[in-house]
Amino acid sequence: MKIEAEWMRGGTSKCWVFETGQLDETGTSPDVLLPRLFGSPDHRQIDGVGGATSTTSKAMILHRPADAGVDVEFTFAQVGIEEAAVDWGSNCGNCSAVVGLYAIEKGWVVPDGDVTRIVTRNTNTGQVIIQRVSTPAGALPIVPQAQMPGVPFPGYRVGLGFLDPAGKTTGRLLPTGSATDTIIAGGTRWTVSMVDAGAPVVMLRAEELGLDPERHASWTAGLELQLDTLEHIRRQAAVRMGLAATPGEAARAVPKVAVVSAPARSDAESDVAVVMLSMGKPHPALAITGSIALTLAARTPGTLLGDITGGTAGPTLRLRTPAGVIETWSEECDGQLLVGVDRTARTIATTTIHLPEALGTAVDASFAGATR
Asked: Between vectors from CA 229 to CA 223 and to CA 235, what angle results, nearest 5°?
């Protein structure tokens, strides 16, 4: 069995990009097919195309919908590494940046002017993301030159604007109805904010975890020692947010966890300091869907971030991350709130992936498994 795919970097993540029709032709459920393609279950993913980390074990599945108002529809898959499983419960903002670029490179969208606008829709959440790809003089640059924090090499600039992102997964910006809640884990009461925008996120104060706001660079090491407690908090938050019936049923990818504080006194370049966890480990940069949640939380009085920023609705929010400062922006678009961030993206390879054996479990013709 052979499957055509593109290997692409979007923001600080890498993903394999497939077209829906190509996967349909295999006659295999994506819940079975993707782990085998990636080489799971195996912490090395040695017999597959996975990168053996949460930021590199990802897939995007694209198609061109009949809806005239949407250029590209896409489904995100977080492929398990040590488990032969796929999490369809959320989107990946970093990998979303490949969708507009793919559409231009494949001729699905014709470049128009210095910035080409591509309307995309994520099926995991129903979120519309308006992508703005830099196309000076009506074409992609021959050599990409846009830079971003967390990536040493340039790519094509892609702006991601999440249209009216509040409550796309749970139905409400504040799923519990409260700006802060208390969760008990490890015999300790933790104050958290649970926010759903871009992706569901549970936020904690760095100080409650014994982390020094003046030493942001040390947070990752400190969090590594508290992963079990953080996972306990995350799973309880999943139940509180209506994402799971019990803590044991919580998905691996949602909700995400963000640890936040005011920036160091010497840091004049940021408004908030943050380290986010992805698939149970500290993220080397920032989950972009999570940054959308952080942005709306900063605009909401009473949340942990609202207390730091004063709940003001400024046009930009500067987030200090392990990879540097990432800036999000907010603006009005036809009477709706557009919250976004600029990323870069690049195609790494166009390839044929070989599977050594046929796989069973027929897939629905509508590819329903990928749109859950």
From this structure: 115
What are the tokens at 59?
């897939």
pLDDT < 70: residue spans in the chain: 313, 358-372
262 vs 268: CA distance, rounded Å: 11
Sign of CA dihedral 298, 301, 304, 310: positive
CA distance 53 to 78: 11
Residue of 82, 29, 97 lying closest to 372 (CA atoms): 29
Counted residue by residue, the chain has a size of: 372
Nearest by Cα to 36 from 367, 362, 357 = 357
pLDDT (tens digit per residue) in 348-366? 999 999 987 766 443 343 3
pTM, two decimal places = 0.85
Give whole-number Cα distances, 17 to 5, 38, 69, 350, in Å: 6, 12, 22, 10
Task: Return the bridge partners of 141, or none.
Answer: none
Q: CB atoms < 10 A from the CB of 330, how many?
A: 20
Looking only at the bridges linking them, the beta strands covering 336-354 and 324-333 are antiparallel
